[in-house]
Amino acid sequence: MDIQLKLACTLSDRTRPIVEGRIAVPGCRFEVTLGEPEAIFRQALREKTFDVTELSMGSHIVTTARGDSAYIGVPIFLSRAFRHSGIFVRTDRGIASLADLKGRRVGLPEYQQTAAMWVRGIMKDQHGVDARDVEWVTGSQEVAGGTERVALKLPTDIRVTPIGSDETLNGLLAKGEIDALITPRPPSSFLERTAPVDRLFPDFRAAETAWYRETGFFPIMHCLAVRRDVAAAHPWLPKALFEAFAQAKAEALDDLSRGNFLRVALPWVVDHLAETRAVMGSNVWPYGVPLNRAEISAMTRFAATDGLAARQVAVEELFHETTLELADLG
Questions:
Q1: What is the pLDDT of residues 194-235, one digit of tens each?
Q2: pTM
Q3: Dihedral-angle region of residue 186 (phi above 0 means left; psi in -120 to 50 means alpha; beta otherwise)
Q4: Among 17, 54, 172, 300, which residue's Cβ finds the most Cβ atoms within 10 Å?
């Protein structure tokens, strides 16, 4: 008899075949919760609601390092994104590079947010700016009231200050009370051109391509995870999930490559995929530890350097033992 599991994830071309039941995980039936990442992560981390969930890699590293993670990862990386496009600065502050953020006040939706962790890692590795060199300001971007999804205990020499309960990061940026904002979502002051705010990297695709050529990293944002008690009761499940979600991703990429009938509402999507593969190779969205070990190790190093994690966790600690050798070859 199939087991009934609660699955939470965002809806994307990589998850849709699973959500719609076109690709099955043998032995499983899912009760699916769809939503935005932040809401899913908070519910998973605070309430342990879901048996299988999409999970922030930053939060997963934090909770694993301190030994209270309710989930064990599966190296299915449902979200990846370059992050040079998500750095917004006041244009009246003389900020021309990440090095110029040293000594500045910089906003973040959450200090533990994976996107922010990646940007801090780039700042440290390429520009010598340590997390301790910046005053970080955290809170909701557009609507007041946000907090960290899980409590953090940071070293005393890392300055992180929550904004007021009636303030927003976008409002502080627009008023000039912070110098920059690192965020996955462009702030309204930038979109509406109501303040002297612009991207630090206006030609972000060129910057991200150059950085990819240098590092080989396509930043991992989210992984799939199984609640530890569920994985213990069904040790075959993590591998079965890996295989099904890898098949779903392969189907998504195949759809992008078909030009006889466009499956995606972009006129040159086939050419865009070809351009991307010319830079990144045929396997543009790799799953599995063997194909991502160097990148995951960099993430655990960033977390330790940032004070998020008290120690640098081993890659093997993050993922179920049955999945450590699995690799999706594209």
A1: 999 999 999 999 999 999 999 999 999 999 999 999 999 999
A2: 0.95
A3: beta
A4: 54
